[in-house]
Design goal:
The complex is a heterotrimer of chains A (294), B (299) and C (285). Chain B has twelve helices and two strands; from the N terminus they run H-H-E-E-H-H-H-H-H-H-H-H-H-H. Chain B has 299 residues and is mainly α. Helices cover 31% and strands 24% of the residues of chain C. The chains are: A mainly alpha (294), B mainly alpha (299), C alpha/beta (285). The interface between A and B is large, with 82 and 78 residues.
Chain lengths: 294, 299, 285
């Protein structure tokens, strides 16, 4: 008779136990991971919080006088550089995405450009730094200026912005475009008034995440010659600068305890900059998901 | 019927947008050109040959006698990269299985942003963690003779950095596997774990492979965390508890010093950078090809 | 025939695949395996609801052993939903609620003590679109048996199942090749072989030929006829002629209700209800 017990040893108990064990392990790993992250953040806060003060934010760093060091030059340097990076990369990236998504024909050249962008997204950030060193610092004689740093970072985040913007544009249903064309709109008019607005939240999410990444990058800026331990803030595009991750890196490299504390405080400031940005990006995405009607 | 002015404007906009898209091509050409030109100058020196560079086992560009064998840097890079993969791939796959097959929607909505937060922490912060916590509290507790700078601590933090990438790509891959395959497996009296591990994961295997390759390329391109954690001693070793130097760490180290333009040290950055670029490019391209074939099967 | 039996009180379906559910199999001997000689599965006032929508309403049906029972009806009448309820595949649909009882081996399958995974070992399923695993032909057939700890010789089991599914001669030289290289009809026979490799009591078939060409369909219909010697087959089909050719008993469903069930030749020559008559003669559907 079929289904007789003899031929199979299904061992359901054992198999179910394995499944439960797996789920339990995953849960434990997750909680452990989160727990470790929490512990690390708490330790950083513990180490550096007492150094956080308005003075810390407004004083300059000094290798010789660590007790009265601050992070002012780095904050302003980062602000200048990232601001310029955004001004350069965001319009360029969105424009390129619009071209690729809305205008370009599906031929081998387009395919090649897309492949190229995907590859550029995977190139290590330090290679962008090398590029920036050779092209902006030396060839264009921009030296170790804010402009050179911003252009280098702009090239770094450009592929990311292009890819994210393309996804946002592709998510807009074709019916929106057809409706506009049917009313006699030109292609650009259609894009400007019917495609870009619904894609904007997605584009903004991508842009914010890309710029957050740029804020945390030190290697490319070091390559183009960003300084350390400077006692001034940039006032023009050609000025020298330092940036937050570089300052933190320099503090971590020093062996004395006081520098470790300064590094921890710097990290808190950096995370304090990044966390609201990331939360904003995630929030925009969630809001858009809930609100969109297609 | 659009007016002449409108047509001209449309045409201008179209060309402007096309110019923006070609910036990416200019970037690639720029990268290849700058790396190639300075590498050429580097290899023109009498004491350096391409073969010697690629196969030499001593890297001492500043000390006398000078040696430019890149293998110790490559070894350090792969030690950290492979170590990170070994840790990150199983954890990433399990996280992806949990996310796509087990987690209830509420928990999933919590877990995915958590992974994104992990991915958003800057690399210097991870370097700090490695130096301040992983090495003293974990590694030196496990094995007291661990040096302050070691490859293992770099591998651990790089693993944490790439887990979100692997988990997210594998999650996408698992979701691409059609539901009918899962149905067939359940109808054959399989438990959820068996369906996930013995049908879904094998069916998504090329997606998993593509994710692994991509993550490896990211791992070997990591700079700041590795520079802080692994140290600056180029040596040919498989011992993860020793200090090593990766290609990226070398490049950063030279830049932090005062290296005048045109010197052999300056040019060595480009040669090492060229090697790094080519290796990551190869992994990225293979990963994309694998991913493309995977998508063709399931879409 | 629709019987008038009071439906049992509504009971919610246990949560989908609770992997911590008590693993009591549906047919341990201490529960008294005394299935009636004639019917292997019996429903009593079975109702299946998705949210506020009732897909199946108050169905009382008996599936006789070693016969082919066909369930026919127009699209959306609930026949697939009813079929999937038998091996609890509906558990995977969110918001589903099952009322009434479905008795297999003297235990209500929807009782919280029943283990769905074990149930599916004894009640197998073949789906509408062939869905072989992207593995070799051998691995496909052997998969279920391996998972369930088959104690015998797997090679022999694979050959036996493929022979029973009338596929052995075509694939015996390429067992290690990918199952996806087979034609649609061959893949469906492979899926049948895969299901019967577990030696189930019952094989459920959800429109198994609707994605196949007429020749492949004919081969599978012959196969179904030969399968009933060893298994009980429940077949859902939208093709009336197929039901007439292949089945011994036919149940006709309309808008979630069981209108009529009887021997096939009765249903197709002198049905009792007018609605059945209308459907058979093509007035709707």
């Amino acid at each position: 008779m079929n289904g007789d017990e003899g031929m199979f040893a299904p061992n359901l108990r054992g198999r179910r136990r394995k499944g439960a064990l797996f789920a339990a392990i995953c849960l434990v790993m997750t909680l452990l991971g989160l727990g470790v992250l929490a512990v690390l953040l708490v330790s950083v806060a513990d180490l550096g919080a007492h150094r956080l003060s308005w003075g810390f934010l407004t004083r300059y760093p000094s290798r010789l006088a660590p007790e009265s060091s601050g992070i002012k030059s780095a904050i302003w340097g980062t602000t200048w550089v990232i601001g310029l990076t955004g001004l350069t990369a965001v319009p360029l990236g969105i424009a390129a995405a619009i071209h690729l998504q809305e205008y370009a024909l599906r031929n081998r050249i387009t395919r090649f450009i897309e492949l190229n962008i995907a590859n550029l997204a995977g190139v290590p950030s330090i290679v962008y730094g090398i590029l920036g060193l050779a092209m902006f610092t030396r060839m264009m004689h921009l030296g170790r200026s804010v402009l050179a740093g911003a252009l280098t970072l702009a090239l770094l985040v450009l592929p990311v912005i292009i890819i994210a913007s393309r996804e946002a544009l592709a998510a807009v249903p074709d019916s929106f475009r057809y409706a506009a064309y049917a009313l006699g709109a030109t292609r650009w008019q259609t894009i400007w008034s019917h495609v870009l607005p619904p894609a904007l939240p997605g584009i903004m999410t991508g842009v914010i995440l890309a710029l957050s990444r740029a804020i945390g990058e030190a290697a490319p800026l070091i390559m183009i010659g960003a300084l350390t331990y400077i006692a001034f803030v940039p006032e023009g595009l050609r000025d020298d600068f330092t940036a937050m991750p570089i300052q933190i890196y320099n503090w971590v490299e020093e062996p004395e305890q006081v520098f470790r504390e300064l590094a921890a405080a710097g990290i808190l400031v950096l995370l304090g900059m990044l966390f609201p940005l990331n939360a904003l990006a995630i929030g925009i995405r969630a809001w858009h998901q809930r609100r969109k009607t297609w | 019927m659009p007016t002449n002015a409108a047509k001209v404007r449309e045409g201008a906009i179209r060309y402007l947008l096309m110019a923006c898209a070609s910036v990416s091509i200019v970037t690639t050409i720029g990268i290849i050109w700058t790396l190639a030109v300075e590498s050429y100058h580097f290899f023109k020196h009498e004491e350096i040959s391409v073969l010697g560079f690629l196969t030499g086992t001593r890297w001492a560009p500043l000390l006398e006698p000078r040696d430019f064998g890149v293998l110790p840097l490559v070894c350090g890079t792969f030690l950290v990269g492979a170590g990170a993969l070994v840790l990150a791939v199983p954890v990433g796959i399990c996280a992806a299985i949990f996310l796509s097959e087990y987690a209830k929607p509420g928990f999933r909505g919590f877990l995915k942003p958590m992974l994104e937060i992990l991915a958003g922490i800057p690399t210097v912060v991870y370097g700090y963690f490695a130096l301040m916590f992983v090495t003293p509290y974990l590694l030196q507790w496990l094995r007291p003779q661990t040096e302050i700078f070691n490859a293992a601590s770099a591998a651990i933090v790089v693993a944490v950095m790439i887990i979100p990438t692997i988990a997210s790509l594998c999650d996408d891959a698992f979701r691409s596997v059609p539901g009918t395959l899962r149905e067939a497996a359940y109808a054959l009296s399989a438990t959820k774990l068996e369906v996930s591990a013995r049908v879904v994961v094998p069916a998504a295997m090329s997606g998993v492979v593509a994710a692994t390759l991509l993550a490896f390329a990211r791992a070997i391109g990591e700079t700041m965390a590795v520079a802080l954690a692994a140290g600056a001693t180029p040596k040919l070793t498989l011992n993860p508890f020793e200090s090593v130097m990766t290609m990226t760490a070398y490049i950063v180290q030279v830049s932090l010093g005062d290296t005048p333009h045109g010197t052999i040290e300056y040019q060595s950055i480009f040669a090492v950078g060229m090697l790094l670029f080519l290796v990551t490019l190869v992994f990225n391209i293979i990963s994309q090809q694998v991913l493309r074939r995977f998508r063709e099967v399931y879409e | 025939m629709v019987s008038v039996v009071e439906p049992k009180t509504a009971r919610d379906v246990p949560p989908p695949e609770p992997f911590l559910a008590p693993p009591i199999a549906c047919s341990r001997s201490d529960l008294g395996v005394t299935s009636s000689a004639d019917s292997v599965i019996r429903t009593e006032g079975l109702g299946i609801h998705y949210g506020h929508f009732t897909a199946v309403r108050d169905v009382t049906l008996s599936i006789p052993r070693n016969q082919v029972t066909a369930i026919i009806g127009p699209s959306g009448c609930g026949k697939s939903t009813l079929l999937r309820a038998i091996n609890r595949m509906n558990d995977f649909i969110p918001n589903v609620r099952t009322t009434g009882r479905l008795i297999y081996r003297d235990l209500d399958v929807y009782d919280s003590r029943c283990d769905a995974v074990d149930l599916r070992r004894r009640i197998g399923m073949v789906f509408q679109k062939p869905n072989p695993f992207p593995k070799s032909i051998y691995r496909n057939v052997a998969w279920g048996a391996v998972i369930n700890g088959y104690r015998g010789d797997i090679d022999e089991l694979v050959e036996r199942s493929l022979r029973q599914a009338a596929l052995w001669d075509e694939v015996k030289d390429k067992l290690r090749e990918s199952a996806l290289a087979l034609s649609g009809g061959q893949q469906q026979r492979l899926c049948i072989a895969r299901a019967i490799a577990l030696m189930p009591d019952v094989v459920l078939m959800d429109e198994p030929c609707s994605a196949l060409d007429p020749i492949a369909t004919a081969r599978i219909e012959d196969l179904i006829d030969s399968l009933k010697r060893q298994f009980t087959v429940v077949l859902v089909t939208h093709n009336m002629q197929q039901a007439a050719r292949v089945s011994d008993r036919t149940a006709f469903m309309y808008m979630g209700e069981l209108v009529e069930v009887d021997a096939t030749n009765v249903i197709f020559t002198r049905p009792g209800k007018k609605r059945t008559q209308d459907y058979i003669t093509g007035r709707f559907g």
